[in-house]
Please model this.
Amino acid sequence: MFFASGKNKAVLYKLLEYANQQVVINWYEDGQLTERNGFFYSSLCIEDNTLVFIKENEVKQTISLINYQTIEILPDFRDFFQLTNGTHILQIYFPH
Model:
């Protein structure tokens, strides 16, 4: 389960600090980019094991955290988070 380790929680809380900016989300399967979504949002929250991006009281994007085993901050990039479950990878980054 996603919240099994304290490290996942700490990184997730760091992710929740981001607000009022642009985000880009990339989905990969077996190393291949399968989908990309970029948008502006005002806040992030977690509801029922789901990461929710909100702008003007409207849900812009949801991500089920149950689908992933780990979350980490990629050290080679600034403001770049990665959720992983085997060959399924979701990357969240905040361009500047």
In short: The helical segments are 6-15. The chain has a mean pLDDT of 91.
